[in-house]
Specification:
Helices cover about 40% and strands about 15% of the residues. With about 230 residues, it is an alpha/beta fold. The longest helix is centred in the middle third of the chain and has 21 residues.
Length: about 230
């Protein structure tokens, strides 16, 4: 069987001028993730990320911590934009009237929760709209692109191959909701609970593609890297 490790990036910089940068906690999470991959003996045949900075930096930090980031055996980090997250800022702007959506800024827990509540509502509306052409990347396209990216990766690995993908929570939730055949609304619930630097495993064999594990993040517990969800 081929196996794909779907990894959510480390914590991004909520409230900062540039969200698409790992926070200090996110950098620590990435290092702990790499140590966990090394502990498991994961030696990837392919490493793929989206084109977002937080995804690519998580991959580089994790590979370095796993002892795979230098030397002749260093795996190439491939970039495929299909693994990119949905545009949360655009979703908030599109699904809320001007001035109604909470600002994606500030660093307090209250502000973060307000944004999360609003984003959950915007995501639900995005999913319900299906192929809404007003969205740059409609839900139907997002779902189909991520599924195609996973299928192509698994096919390329062949029997016994190992792939590591550093992506985002929304991508992982979309793939898992499809593999579990849950209604599209279930995507929102899965998306909400995926921890930063967590590991989800998908396997492919004669019986098809199956979800082996979801949102593993016990490797963060008891370390200097906190468990975070946004």
């Amino acid at each position: 069987m081929a196996v794909a490790y779907l990894v959510r990036h480390g914590q991004a910089s909520f409230g900062a001028a540039d969200y698409d940068v790992l926070s200090e906690a996110g950098r620590r999470q990435s290092a702990v993730l790499g140590a966990e991959l090394a502990r498991r003996g994961v030696v990837p045949d392919r490493v793929v990320t989206g084109s977002m900075t937080r995804q690519r930096d998580t991959a580089a930090l994790a590979l370095a911590a796993a002892g795979l980031g230098e030397g002749p055996t260093e795996p190439e980090i491939e970039v495929d934009a299909r693994w990119n997250e949905y545009d949360h800022v655009a979703l908030l702007a599109h699904h809320y009237a001007a001035g109604d959506a909470p600002a994606f800024g500030g660093a307090t827990e209250e502000q973060a929760r307000a944004v999360q509540r609003a984003l959950d509502g915007a995501i639900a509306a995005w999913v319900a709209a299906g192929d809404c052409r007003a969205c740059e990347r409609p839900w139907s396209r997002f779902r189909d692109e991520t599924s195609a990216a996973l299928a192509e990766l698994l096919a390329s690995l062949g029997r016994g191959g190992v792939g590591v993908v550093v992506t985002s929570g929304g991508v992982i939730a979309a793939l898992c909701s499809r593999l579990l055949e849950v209604p599209p609304e279930g995507f929102v619930r899965l998306n909400r609970v995926i921890a930063n630097a967590s590991v989800t495993r998908v396997v492919s064999g004669r019986s098809g593609t199956s979800l082996l594990s979801f949102n593993e993040h016990a490797h963060l517990e008891g370390t200097a890297a906190p468990v975070t969800y946004r």
